[in-house]
């Protein structure tokens, strides 16, 4: 275990209980690490406050400047990540937002222009339904964008009516009117009011003060305002709204529709069914609904993964954007998104926590940032001996040493003994990692190109999935990869050329990537030259193309069955002889060259990150901490706490559970004794029996002389009250003096 | 009303043609309400189903009447709004909080003119304070000027009696539903000016024949006519058929109408969208849920539609002995005739523990119980896919109902490759 891991273990306990430790002066000393550091100086407290709880690692021996730097880096990197995320989200939904704004702008115009084709016997309130996916909290950002857009360019007034603020019709109407009236007046209106002299807000208020939920106020205000803007009422969470309130609101608004140009925008999380369920037909007929579909959150996540987790972190030395996640945290984040929440917000929160923890618990984290900012010289100055020890304790360092011990014994010896050599070696390693990341990204792009070339839905995987496969290691050997490689060899020459062009473009998408993949680019260019030659020299190739496409279907089927894993061995046995004996100068031979090249490139570029020395510094891997923070298991925690008091309380007098004896020790905590007795009971628990058993155990404490009965009773009552609070028992009326057990069996 | 000493004001000639089939109602209301001196009954009660023209007709009748206050009781949802609205209409702008204050103000009004007070959607008045309606009914007796109070509602008088007591309205006008010929006459009035009336009427008749079963609401029919007529007339304008070839025209419109029959009232394709493209209404359940949430929903559905006593049979793992029993059950179910099938009775409430037990048993792989599952249940409730039966402040013993239909669950189950039918008591 490395030092920093040992260090951070102090913050972990067996339980998954969450403790909020505020960095207050009085409370700071109670955190274990600070206690240990024996430096309870006020300086440390101010550091804690300033850095929002970032602590000096190495048992408090870390220089303060470095602690501050870690905090600064965290802030800086998170800001960059957040900007990227917002950009991605806005970009993904910009089309939908524009559509919504257009809809609002033309909400009333369309009625007039289409008058000749269709005259409706009555007016309907234009209503935009935004199907935004099931995550209501995620949509706040979207609605704020919509609001900003609506108020910015045009003079629409917008009122957002979230369900939590609109429990009754009165509060709803009031909140709506207030939001409409609080709009900043337009310039023209300002001038008009100046001319009026007395033109303040009261100009549009009636002589008597009407109650603030009277629609008349709104009507008067609108008449005074004399603007062409529409009144847009946004209900972001339609499902949560009280149906009665919303019905009345729609009724009222449509009543005023002659004078007030209302437009509704509903955020619907499920489907239009929700509307049909909560609105009667009389109300439905008042709405002219138009639907807007937002980009699915899957696409957003894919884009975020691509931007933040996949792309090389360091481009053009402007600092890091994104965070490289190791396999386990990535798996956790993606699984929790895919299987549990589908929430972009949740994903982003977990990512933020990961970024925070990366800097919070790892003293080496600053190295990568300093390398990114091109401050190598400085990096060598600030490193403390502890850092160097830490680096030497890294698993990847050990592996590097073992691998090079034979070939370069001098270099290895110097690395182990000389600190300055290690410092120099750092930047070399980082350079390698950067190169690896660039090539890795380019390689995944190539695989995507390959998918595009194959154009088969059964083989299309998103980058998110490919990344997961690649992180697991052995990417080229996966069934999926071997299947699509096989398919590639069945393509026609022309398609292969297109594919190679695509690959080349993918490799040369940025300067750094074409730099890092120089050899591969050259190889592809060579391949393409040969290909052109080959096509020119062999006019029959077009015929063979046809033959190829004829067999293509058949082959694809085979490859499919290969991918699905059934009959793998049979198929591969049957295919191998065909594949290996190809004549030189045929299409087959050329395609084999292409696929061999690709295989070689991919296996090099997508090798597991764990093979890189110092990968621990760059790749965040503490999935357990994320799991603890975002997926706690309350019941398991309580059971551990009561059952394994030794670990939970860090108490040495509590018996270990591993011995296997069933006797309940009197040294246990009272609630724990009660809990263990509880485990032995059936569904109904007789309180008196429980009490007697409890008393029998507790009395052992005093070794013979009996305890006061009322004392025991008090302690017993206290502990079963605790169990009741924790949800283990419940009082019942079915049987006197009994409590009902609530948890299932002995789970 | 034909007393020569009170010459009735000549009705606007077009009001009868404007409201086909409402002659008796117009005759009953028009003279007494519009005559400047003729005393009107103190309370008038207009009742009739929605969409029978009560509000529109009365508005038309009272078009030129001054001193009229119109209160829409949905919009004026508190007493204060009601009274201040009335007073504003009568030219008295002041604050007025309750019926007592209102009566005081009205009593002091120095006027001899006849006034009319209309409460549209008057059923809402019953939800306000219990003294409001009786007081309003008595109001004409208390004021100095002739006052008429008109209540418009889709309910009948007995529905009001529990609130008002034995004080019956002095005059009741009932608005019966329109007959077929009346409906057709109304629909024919929507004929575009450029169109041949005969041709339009023939279309309206077709439409009425098709839709009269599910929908007699004149408003909805007018909407449908407006929506489909352009489609109907399209082949004519394109020159494909002539206006006389009705059967051919019907052939063209039939698929559209068939489609629309499924979604009468639903408006899932709005008039505007309909114009832009010929969008077909599709009932695709494209609600995308996370993987485990889908299973939770399926579990909830099973819990709602299966009797709890059979849970052991369906969900206990590795039970071989129940094979025989199954056969016996099936026979019994079919002999019951399936009338009491849960699918027909609707969902039953179930405790959340049962939902979780079923959930863990239908999952193929085991899953650690973590806070996520509870969060997902909560979000299902907030999406109204589950409905909580117990009150929100009760934290233990929460009971829920599943709020989605079989079709929806089938679609969800299909997406996770799960066979719901195998576990449903009604279909086994």
Automatic annotation (TrEMBL), chain A:
<comment type="function">
    <text>Component of the origin recognition complex (ORC) that binds origins of replication. DNA-binding is ATP-dependent. The specific DNA sequences that define origins of replication have not been identified yet. ORC is required to assemble the pre-replication complex necessary to initiate DNA replication. Binds histone H3 and H4 trimethylation marks H3K9me3, H3K27me3 and H4K20me3.</text>
</comment>
<comment type="similarity">
    <text>Belongs to the ORC3 family.</text>
</comment>
<dbReference type="GO" id="GO:0031261">
    <property type="term" value="C:DNA replication preinitiation complex"/>
</dbReference>
<dbReference type="GO" id="GO:0006270">
    <property type="term" value="P:DNA replication initiation"/>
</dbReference>
<keyword id="KW-0235">DNA replication</keyword>
<dbReference type="InterPro" id="IPR045663">
    <property type="entry name" value="ORC3_ins"/>
</dbReference>
<feature type="domain" description="Origin recognition complex subunit 3 N-terminal">
    <location>
        <begin position="11"/>
        <end position="367"/>
    </location>
</feature>
<feature type="domain" description="Origin recognition complex subunit 3 insertion">
    <location>
        <begin position="387"/>
        <end position="623"/>
    </location>
</feature>
<dbReference type="Pfam" id="PF07034">
    <property type="entry name" value="ORC3_N"/>
</dbReference>
<protein>
    <recommendedName>
        <fullName>Origin recognition complex subunit 3</fullName>
    </recommendedName>
</protein>
<keyword id="KW-0597">Phosphoprotein</keyword>
<dbReference type="InterPro" id="IPR045667">
    <property type="entry name" value="ORC3_N"/>
</dbReference>
<keyword id="KW-0238">DNA-binding</keyword>
<dbReference type="GO" id="GO:0003688">
    <property type="term" value="F:DNA replication origin binding"/>
</dbReference>
<dbReference type="InterPro" id="IPR020795">
    <property type="entry name" value="ORC3"/>
</dbReference>
<dbReference type="InterPro" id="IPR040855">
    <property type="entry name" value="ORC_WH_C"/>
</dbReference>
<dbReference type="Pfam" id="PF19675">
    <property type="entry name" value="ORC3_ins"/>
</dbReference>
<dbReference type="GO" id="GO:0005664">
    <property type="term" value="C:nuclear origin of replication recognition complex"/>
</dbReference>
<comment type="subunit">
    <text>Component of ORC, a complex composed of at least 6 subunits: ORC1, ORC2, ORC3, ORC4, ORC5 and ORC6. ORC is regulated in a cell-cycle dependent manner. It is sequentially assembled at the exit from anaphase of mitosis and disassembled as cells enter S phase.</text>
</comment>
<dbReference type="GO" id="GO:0005656">
    <property type="term" value="C:nuclear pre-replicative complex"/>
</dbReference>
<keyword id="KW-0539">Nucleus</keyword>
<dbReference type="Pfam" id="PF18137">
    <property type="entry name" value="WHD_ORC"/>
</dbReference>
TrEMBL record, chain B:
<feature type="domain" description="AAA+ ATPase">
    <location>
        <begin position="40"/>
        <end position="170"/>
    </location>
</feature>
<dbReference type="InterPro" id="IPR020796">
    <property type="entry name" value="ORC5"/>
</dbReference>
<dbReference type="GO" id="GO:0003688">
    <property type="term" value="F:DNA replication origin binding"/>
</dbReference>
<dbReference type="Pfam" id="PF13191">
    <property type="entry name" value="AAA_16"/>
</dbReference>
<dbReference type="InterPro" id="IPR048866">
    <property type="entry name" value="ORC5_lid"/>
</dbReference>
<dbReference type="GO" id="GO:0005664">
    <property type="term" value="C:nuclear origin of replication recognition complex"/>
</dbReference>
<protein>
    <recommendedName>
        <fullName>AAA+ ATPase domain-containing protein</fullName>
    </recommendedName>
</protein>
<dbReference type="Pfam" id="PF21639">
    <property type="entry name" value="ORC5_lid"/>
</dbReference>
<dbReference type="InterPro" id="IPR027417">
    <property type="entry name" value="P-loop_NTPase"/>
</dbReference>
<dbReference type="InterPro" id="IPR041664">
    <property type="entry name" value="AAA_16"/>
</dbReference>
<keyword id="KW-0539">Nucleus</keyword>
<dbReference type="InterPro" id="IPR003593">
    <property type="entry name" value="AAA+_ATPase"/>
</dbReference>
<keyword id="KW-0235">DNA replication</keyword>
<dbReference type="GO" id="GO:0006270">
    <property type="term" value="P:DNA replication initiation"/>
</dbReference>
<keyword id="KW-0067">ATP-binding</keyword>
<dbReference type="Pfam" id="PF14630">
    <property type="entry name" value="ORC5_C"/>
</dbReference>
<comment type="similarity">
    <text>Belongs to the ORC5 family.</text>
</comment>
<keyword id="KW-0547">Nucleotide-binding</keyword>
<dbReference type="InterPro" id="IPR047088">
    <property type="entry name" value="ORC5_C"/>
</dbReference>
């Amino acid at each position: 275990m490395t030092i920093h891991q040992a260090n951070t273990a102090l913050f972990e306990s067996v339980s998954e209980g969450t403790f909020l430790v505020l960095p207050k002066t009085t409370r700071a000393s109670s955190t274990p690490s600070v206690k240990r550091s024996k430096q309870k100086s006020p300086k440390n407290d101010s550091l804690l406050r300033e850095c929002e709880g970032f602590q000096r690692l190495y048992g408090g021996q870390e220089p303060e400047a470095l602690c501050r730097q870690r905090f600064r880096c965290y802030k800086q990197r998170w800001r960059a990540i957040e900007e990227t995320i917002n950009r991605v989200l806005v970009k993904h939904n910009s089309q939908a937002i524009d559509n919504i704004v257009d809809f609002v702008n033309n909400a009333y115009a369309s009625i007039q222009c289409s008058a000749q084709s269709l005259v409706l016997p009555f007016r309907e309130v234009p209503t935009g339904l935004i199907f935004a996916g099931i995550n209501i909290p995620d949509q706040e950002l979207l609605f704020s964008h919509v609001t900003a857009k609506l108020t910015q360019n045009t003079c629409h007034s917008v009122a957002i009516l979230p369900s939590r603020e609109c429990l009754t019709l009165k509060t709803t109407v009031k909140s709506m009117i207030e939001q409409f009236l609080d709009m900043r007046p337009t310039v023209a209106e300002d001038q008009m009011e100046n001319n009026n002299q007395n033109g303040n807000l009261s100009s549009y208020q009636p002589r008597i003060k009407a109650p603030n939920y009277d629609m008349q106020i709104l009507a008067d205000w609108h008449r005074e305002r004399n603007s062409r803007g529409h009144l847009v009422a946004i209900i972001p969470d339609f499902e949560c709204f009280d149906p009665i309130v919303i019905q009345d609101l729609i009724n009222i608004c449509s009543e005023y529709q002659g004078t007030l140009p209302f437009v509704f925008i509903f955020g619907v999380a499920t489907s239009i069914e929700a509307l049909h369920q909560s609105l009667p037909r009389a109300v439905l007929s008042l709405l002219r609904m138009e639907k807007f579909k937002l980009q699915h959150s899957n696409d957003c996540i894919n884009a975020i993964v691509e931007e933040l987790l996949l792309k090389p972190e360091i481009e053009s030395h402007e600092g890091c954007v994104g965070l490289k996640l190791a396999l386990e945290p990535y798996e956790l984040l993606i699984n929790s998104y895919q299987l549990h929440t589908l929430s972009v917000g949740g994903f982003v929160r977990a990512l933020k926590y990961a970024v925070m923890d990366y800097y919070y618990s790892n003293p080496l984290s600053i190295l990568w940032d300093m390398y990114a900012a091109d401050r190598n010289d400085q990096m060598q100055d600030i490193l403390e001996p502890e850092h160097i020890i830490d680096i030497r304790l890294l698993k990847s360092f050990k592996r590097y040493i073992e691998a090079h011990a034979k070939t370069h014994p001098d270099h290895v010896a110097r690395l182990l003994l000389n600190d300055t050599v290690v410092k120099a070696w750092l930047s070399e390693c980082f350079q390698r990692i950067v190169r690896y990341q660039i090539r890795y990204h380019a390689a995944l792009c190539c695989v995507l190109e390959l998918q595009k070339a194959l154009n088969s839905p059964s083989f299309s995987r998103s980058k998110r999935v490919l990344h997961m496969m690649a992180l697991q290691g052995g990417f080229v050997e996966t069934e999926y990869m071997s299947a699509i490689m096989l398919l590639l060899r069945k393509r026609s020459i022309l398609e292969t050329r297109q594919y190679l062009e695509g690959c080349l473009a993918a490799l040369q998408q940025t300067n750094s990537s074409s730099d890092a993949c120089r050899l591969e680019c050259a190889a592809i260019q060579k391949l393409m030259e040969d290909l052109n030659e080959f096509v020119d020299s062999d006019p029959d190739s077009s015929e063979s193309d046809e033959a190829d496409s004829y067999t293509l279907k058949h082959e694809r089927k085979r490859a499919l069955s290969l991918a699905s894993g059934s009959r793998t061995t049979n198929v591969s046995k049957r295919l191998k002889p065909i594949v290996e004996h190809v004549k030189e100068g045929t299409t087959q031979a050329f395609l084999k060259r292409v696929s061999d090249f690709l295989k070689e490139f991919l296996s090099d570029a997508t090798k597991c990150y764990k093979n890189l020395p110092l990968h621990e510094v760059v790749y965040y891997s503490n999935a357990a901490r994320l799991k603890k923070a975002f997926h706690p298991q309350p019941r398991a925690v309580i059971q551990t706490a009561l059952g394994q008091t030794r670990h939970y309380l860090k108490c040495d007098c509590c018996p270990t559970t591993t011995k296997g004896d069933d006797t309940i020790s009197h040294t246990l905590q009272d609630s724990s004794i009660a809990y263990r007795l509880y485990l032995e009971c059936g569904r109904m628990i007789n309180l008196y029996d429980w009490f007697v058993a409890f008393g029998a155990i507790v009395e052992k404490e005093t070794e013979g002389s009996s305890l006061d009965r009322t004392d025991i009773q008090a302690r017993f009552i206290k502990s079963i009250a605790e169990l009741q609070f924790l949800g283990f028992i419940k009082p019942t009326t079915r049987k006197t003096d009994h409590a009902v057990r609530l948890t299932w069996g002995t789970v | 009303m034909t007393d020569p000493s009170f010459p009735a004001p000549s009705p606007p000639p077009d009001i009868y043609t404007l409201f086909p089939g409402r002659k008796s109602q117009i005759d009953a209301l028009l003279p007494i309400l519009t005559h400047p001196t003729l005393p009107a009954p103190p309370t008038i009660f207009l009742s009739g189903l929605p969409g029978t023209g009560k509000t529109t007709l009365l508005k038309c009748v009272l078009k030129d009447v001054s001193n009229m206050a119109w209160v829409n009781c949905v919009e004026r949802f508190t007493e204060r709004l009601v009274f201040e609205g009335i007073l504003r209409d009568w030219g008295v702008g002041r604050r007025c909080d309750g019926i007592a204050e209102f009566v005081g103000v009205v009593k002091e009004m120095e006027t001899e003119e006849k006034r009319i007070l209309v409460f549209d959607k008057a059923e809402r008045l019953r939800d306000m304070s219990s003294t409001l309606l009786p007081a309003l009914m008595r109001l004409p007796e208390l004021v100095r000027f002739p006052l008429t109070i008109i209540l418009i509602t889709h309910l009948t008088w007995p529905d009001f009696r529990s609130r008002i007591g034995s004080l019956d309205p002095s005059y009741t006008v009932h608005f019966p539903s329109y007959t077929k010929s009346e409906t057709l006459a109304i629909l024919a009035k929507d004929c575009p000016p450029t169109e041949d009336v005969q041709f339009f009427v023939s279309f309206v008749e077709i439409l009425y024949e098709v839709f009269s079963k599910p929908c007699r609401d004149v408003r909805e029919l007018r909407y449908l006519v407006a929506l489909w007529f352009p489609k109907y007339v399209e082949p004519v304008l394109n020159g494909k058929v002539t206006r006389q070839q009705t059967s051919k025209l019907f052939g063209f419109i039939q698929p559209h109408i068939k489609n629309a029959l499924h979604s009468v009232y639903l408006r899932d394709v709005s008039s505007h969208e309909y114009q832009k493209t010929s969008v077909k209404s599709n009932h695709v359940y494209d609600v995308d849920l996370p993987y485990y949430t889908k299973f939770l929903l399926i579990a909830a559905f099973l819990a709602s539609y299966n009797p709890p006593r059979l849970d052991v049979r369906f969900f206990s793992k590795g039970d071989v002995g129940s094979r025989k029993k199954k056969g016996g059950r099936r026979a019994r179910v079919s002999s019951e005739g399936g009338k009491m099938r849960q699918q027909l009775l609707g969902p039953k409430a179930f405790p959340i523990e049962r939902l979780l037990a079923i959930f863990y048993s239908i999952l193929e792989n085991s899953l650690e119980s973590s806070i996520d599952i509870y969060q997902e249940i909560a979000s299902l409730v907030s999406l109204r896919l589950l409905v909580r039966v117990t009150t929100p402040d009760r934290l233990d013993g929460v009971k829920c109902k599943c709020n989605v239909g079989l079709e929806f669950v089938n679609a969800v189950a299909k997406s996770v490759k799960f066979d719901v039918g195998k576990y449903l008591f009604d279909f086994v």
